[in-house]
Amino acid sequence: MTRYPFRSALVTGASSGIGESMAVLLGQAGVACVLVARRGDRLTEIADRYSNFEVLEADLTTDEGCARVVARIADPQRPIDLVVNNAGFGSSGLFHEIESTRLDDEIALNIRALTRLSRAAIEVVVERKRGWLLNVSSVASFQPAPKLAVYAATKAYVTNLTESLHEEVRGTGVKVTALCPGLTRTEFQSVSNTSDYQTQFPEFLWCTSEEVARVGLEDVVKGKALSVPGALYKGLVGASSVLPGPLKRFAARLSLRAR
Asked: CA triplet 65, 105, 139: central angle to 5 degrees?
Protein backbone atom coordinates (compact mmCIF):
# COMPACT_ATOMS: atom_id res chain seq x y z
CA MET A 1 0.00 0.00 0.00
CA THR A 2 1.32 3.44 -0.95
CA ARG A 3 2.10 5.75 1.95
CA TYR A 4 1.72 9.51 1.69
CA PRO A 5 3.02 12.17 4.09
CA PHE A 6 -0.35 13.95 4.26
CA ARG A 7 -2.93 12.89 6.83
CA SER A 8 -5.87 14.70 5.22
CA ALA A 9 -6.83 15.95 1.76
CA LEU A 10 -9.51 17.88 -0.07
CA VAL A 11 -10.18 16.94 -3.70
CA THR A 12 -12.43 18.96 -6.02
CA GLY A 13 -14.08 17.35 -9.02
CA ALA A 14 -13.97 14.11 -7.06
CA SER A 15 -17.12 12.55 -8.50
CA SER A 16 -15.40 11.04 -11.56
CA GLY A 17 -12.23 10.76 -13.62
CA ILE A 18 -8.89 11.89 -12.21
CA GLY A 19 -10.49 13.30 -9.06
CA GLU A 20 -12.23 10.04 -8.25
CA SER A 21 -9.03 8.10 -8.92
CA MET A 22 -7.13 10.35 -6.53
CA ALA A 23 -9.80 9.87 -3.88
CA VAL A 24 -9.51 6.09 -4.23
CA LEU A 25 -5.70 6.14 -3.97
CA LEU A 26 -5.87 8.37 -0.91
CA GLY A 27 -8.59 6.25 0.66
CA GLN A 28 -6.58 3.09 0.13
CA ALA A 29 -3.64 4.78 1.85
CA GLY A 30 -5.77 5.72 4.85
CA VAL A 31 -5.76 9.47 4.14
CA ALA A 32 -8.89 11.26 5.36
CA CYS A 33 -10.56 13.04 2.44
CA VAL A 34 -13.09 15.78 1.80
CA LEU A 35 -14.70 15.10 -1.58
CA VAL A 36 -16.03 18.14 -3.43
CA ALA A 37 -18.31 18.21 -6.49
CA ARG A 38 -21.83 19.14 -7.54
CA ARG A 39 -23.05 15.52 -7.64
CA GLY A 40 -23.51 14.76 -3.98
CA ASP A 41 -25.04 11.35 -4.61
CA ARG A 42 -22.00 10.25 -6.58
CA LEU A 43 -19.65 11.57 -3.88
CA THR A 44 -21.58 9.63 -1.26
CA GLU A 45 -21.13 6.40 -3.23
CA ILE A 46 -17.36 6.94 -3.19
CA ALA A 47 -17.22 8.12 0.42
CA ASP A 48 -19.14 5.08 1.66
CA ARG A 49 -16.14 2.88 0.76
CA TYR A 50 -13.95 4.54 3.39
CA SER A 51 -14.50 5.35 7.06
CA ASN A 52 -12.72 8.71 7.04
CA PHE A 53 -14.29 10.41 4.01
CA GLU A 54 -16.46 13.52 4.05
CA VAL A 55 -18.78 14.83 1.32
CA LEU A 56 -19.02 18.52 0.50
CA GLU A 57 -21.52 19.22 -2.27
CA ALA A 58 -20.70 22.53 -3.96
CA ASP A 59 -20.97 24.23 -7.33
CA LEU A 60 -17.63 25.96 -7.75
CA THR A 61 -18.87 28.16 -10.58
CA THR A 62 -20.78 30.10 -7.91
CA ASP A 63 -19.54 32.42 -5.16
CA GLU A 64 -21.53 30.44 -2.59
CA GLY A 65 -19.96 27.14 -3.62
CA CYS A 66 -16.44 28.56 -3.55
CA ALA A 67 -17.05 30.17 -0.15
CA ARG A 68 -18.16 26.85 1.35
CA VAL A 69 -15.00 25.10 0.20
CA VAL A 70 -12.74 27.98 1.25
CA ALA A 71 -14.30 27.83 4.72
CA ARG A 72 -13.65 24.11 4.93
CA ILE A 73 -10.00 24.53 3.92
CA ALA A 74 -9.57 27.28 6.52
CA ASP A 75 -11.24 25.36 9.38
CA PRO A 76 -8.54 25.13 12.10
CA GLN A 77 -10.39 22.37 13.93
CA ARG A 78 -10.25 20.06 10.89
CA PRO A 79 -6.97 20.86 9.13
CA ILE A 80 -6.34 19.90 5.50
CA ASP A 81 -2.79 18.94 4.49
CA LEU A 82 -3.29 18.49 0.73
CA VAL A 83 -5.62 20.44 -1.56
CA VAL A 84 -6.19 19.05 -5.06
CA ASN A 85 -7.80 21.50 -7.47
CA ASN A 86 -9.06 19.04 -10.05
CA ALA A 87 -12.49 20.45 -10.94
CA GLY A 88 -12.67 21.84 -14.47
CA PHE A 89 -14.18 21.34 -17.90
CA GLY A 90 -13.60 22.26 -21.53
CA SER A 91 -15.64 23.48 -24.49
CA SER A 92 -14.93 22.16 -27.97
CA GLY A 93 -15.84 24.05 -31.13
CA LEU A 94 -15.30 27.32 -32.91
CA PHE A 95 -14.86 30.11 -30.38
CA HIS A 96 -17.58 32.34 -31.84
CA GLU A 97 -20.11 29.49 -31.96
CA ILE A 98 -19.86 28.38 -28.32
CA GLU A 99 -22.48 29.83 -25.93
CA SER A 100 -20.99 32.74 -24.01
CA THR A 101 -22.59 31.56 -20.76
CA ARG A 102 -20.81 28.22 -21.09
CA LEU A 103 -17.49 29.99 -21.59
CA ASP A 104 -18.22 32.15 -18.54
CA ASP A 105 -18.76 29.02 -16.44
CA GLU A 106 -15.62 27.43 -17.87
CA ILE A 107 -13.52 30.44 -16.89
CA ALA A 108 -15.23 30.66 -13.50
CA LEU A 109 -14.44 27.04 -12.67
CA ASN A 110 -11.03 26.60 -14.30
CA ILE A 111 -9.60 29.96 -13.21
CA ARG A 112 -11.60 31.84 -10.59
CA ALA A 113 -12.48 28.90 -8.35
CA LEU A 114 -9.00 27.38 -8.62
CA THR A 115 -7.43 30.73 -7.72
CA ARG A 116 -9.64 31.23 -4.68
CA LEU A 117 -9.06 27.72 -3.39
CA SER A 118 -5.33 27.91 -4.07
CA ARG A 119 -5.09 31.12 -2.08
CA ALA A 120 -7.05 29.62 0.81
CA ALA A 121 -4.81 26.56 0.83
CA ILE A 122 -1.54 28.49 0.60
CA GLU A 123 -2.56 30.86 3.39
CA VAL A 124 -3.22 27.97 5.75
CA VAL A 125 -0.28 25.71 4.96
CA VAL A 126 2.36 28.47 4.83
CA GLU A 127 1.37 29.47 8.36
CA ARG A 128 1.73 25.82 9.42
CA LYS A 129 4.99 25.49 7.44
CA ARG A 130 3.75 22.19 6.07
CA GLY A 131 1.35 21.31 3.27
CA TRP A 132 0.78 20.44 -0.37
CA LEU A 133 -1.18 21.96 -3.27
CA LEU A 134 -1.80 20.05 -6.50
CA ASN A 135 -3.46 21.96 -9.34
CA VAL A 136 -4.63 19.90 -12.30
CA SER A 137 -3.72 21.59 -15.58
CA SER A 138 -3.10 20.01 -19.00
CA VAL A 139 -0.48 19.60 -21.72
CA ALA A 140 -2.84 21.88 -23.65
CA SER A 141 -1.47 24.70 -21.51
CA PHE A 142 1.82 24.66 -23.43
CA GLN A 143 0.61 25.33 -26.97
CA PRO A 144 -2.30 26.75 -29.01
CA ALA A 145 -5.36 24.51 -29.20
CA PRO A 146 -7.78 25.51 -31.98
CA LYS A 147 -11.37 24.51 -31.15
CA LEU A 148 -10.34 24.20 -27.50
CA ALA A 149 -9.12 27.79 -27.28
CA VAL A 150 -10.65 28.82 -23.96
CA TYR A 151 -9.82 25.52 -22.29
CA ALA A 152 -6.16 25.77 -23.34
CA ALA A 153 -6.04 29.41 -22.24
CA THR A 154 -7.46 28.62 -18.80
CA LYS A 155 -4.98 25.79 -18.37
CA ALA A 156 -2.10 28.06 -19.41
CA TYR A 157 -3.19 30.27 -16.53
CA VAL A 158 -3.26 27.29 -14.16
CA THR A 159 0.23 26.14 -15.13
CA ASN A 160 1.71 29.64 -14.90
CA LEU A 161 0.03 30.42 -11.59
CA THR A 162 1.11 27.12 -10.09
CA GLU A 163 4.72 27.45 -11.17
CA SER A 164 4.76 30.96 -9.69
CA LEU A 165 3.36 29.71 -6.39
CA HIS A 166 5.90 26.86 -6.42
CA GLU A 167 8.66 29.48 -6.36
CA GLU A 168 6.91 31.80 -3.90
CA VAL A 169 6.69 29.11 -1.21
CA ARG A 170 10.14 27.65 -1.77
CA GLY A 171 11.78 27.06 1.59
CA THR A 172 8.56 27.32 3.60
CA GLY A 173 7.88 23.59 3.91
CA VAL A 174 5.03 23.84 1.39
CA LYS A 175 5.05 22.04 -1.98
CA VAL A 176 3.04 23.19 -5.02
CA THR A 177 2.72 21.19 -8.24
CA ALA A 178 0.90 21.54 -11.57
CA LEU A 179 -0.30 18.20 -12.93
CA CYS A 180 -0.36 18.36 -16.74
CA PRO A 181 -1.83 15.19 -18.27
CA GLY A 182 -2.31 14.53 -21.96
CA LEU A 183 -5.23 12.59 -23.39
CA THR A 184 -6.92 10.80 -20.50
CA ARG A 185 -10.05 8.65 -20.62
CA THR A 186 -12.55 10.43 -18.37
CA GLU A 187 -15.93 12.15 -18.64
CA PHE A 188 -14.06 15.16 -20.06
CA GLN A 189 -14.65 13.93 -23.61
CA SER A 190 -18.43 13.79 -23.28
CA VAL A 191 -18.69 17.06 -21.34
CA SER A 192 -16.45 18.96 -23.78
CA ASN A 193 -18.03 17.38 -26.88
CA THR A 194 -14.76 15.68 -27.86
CA SER A 195 -15.92 12.06 -27.70
CA ASP A 196 -14.70 11.57 -31.27
CA TYR A 197 -11.13 11.96 -29.97
CA GLN A 198 -11.35 8.38 -28.70
CA THR A 199 -11.44 7.07 -32.27
CA GLN A 200 -9.32 9.78 -33.89
CA PHE A 201 -6.28 9.39 -31.66
CA PRO A 202 -4.43 6.04 -31.35
CA GLU A 203 -4.50 4.00 -28.16
CA PHE A 204 -0.87 4.66 -27.24
CA LEU A 205 -1.64 8.37 -26.77
CA TRP A 206 -4.18 7.72 -24.01
CA CYS A 207 -3.54 7.56 -20.28
CA THR A 208 -5.86 6.18 -17.63
CA SER A 209 -7.18 8.38 -14.85
CA GLU A 210 -5.58 5.99 -12.35
CA GLU A 211 -2.15 6.46 -13.91
CA VAL A 212 -2.50 10.25 -13.99
CA ALA A 213 -3.70 10.39 -10.38
CA ARG A 214 -0.87 8.17 -9.14
CA VAL A 215 1.83 10.20 -10.91
CA GLY A 216 0.34 13.50 -9.72
CA LEU A 217 0.29 12.42 -6.07
CA GLU A 218 3.82 11.01 -6.29
CA ASP A 219 5.15 14.21 -7.86
CA VAL A 220 3.54 16.62 -5.41
CA VAL A 221 5.13 14.60 -2.60
CA LYS A 222 8.49 15.00 -4.36
CA GLY A 223 7.90 18.73 -4.67
CA LYS A 224 8.07 18.91 -8.46
CA ALA A 225 6.86 22.12 -10.07
CA LEU A 226 5.45 20.23 -13.07
CA SER A 227 4.09 16.70 -13.22
CA VAL A 228 3.60 15.29 -16.73
CA PRO A 229 2.47 11.64 -16.82
CA GLY A 230 3.86 9.52 -19.66
CA ALA A 231 7.22 9.65 -21.43
CA LEU A 232 5.63 10.77 -24.69
CA TYR A 233 3.95 13.78 -23.12
CA LYS A 234 7.08 14.69 -21.19
CA GLY A 235 8.85 14.87 -24.54
CA LEU A 236 6.10 16.95 -26.11
CA VAL A 237 6.12 19.43 -23.25
CA GLY A 238 9.90 19.68 -23.44
CA ALA A 239 9.77 20.30 -27.19
CA SER A 240 7.06 22.95 -26.85
CA SER A 241 9.32 24.98 -24.58
CA VAL A 242 11.90 25.44 -27.33
CA LEU A 243 9.72 25.66 -30.45
CA PRO A 244 9.05 29.18 -31.77
CA GLY A 245 5.46 30.45 -31.74
CA PRO A 246 4.85 30.21 -35.51
CA LEU A 247 5.96 26.57 -35.54
CA LYS A 248 3.70 25.71 -32.61
CA ARG A 249 0.75 27.35 -34.37
CA PHE A 250 1.58 25.42 -37.55
CA ALA A 251 1.61 22.16 -35.59
CA ALA A 252 -1.76 23.13 -34.10
CA ARG A 253 -3.18 23.67 -37.60
CA LEU A 254 -1.94 20.24 -38.70
CA SER A 255 -3.53 18.65 -35.64
CA LEU A 256 -6.80 20.42 -36.40
CA ARG A 257 -6.83 19.11 -39.99
CA ALA A 258 -6.19 15.57 -38.78
CA ARG A 259 -9.36 15.55 -36.71
From this structure: 105
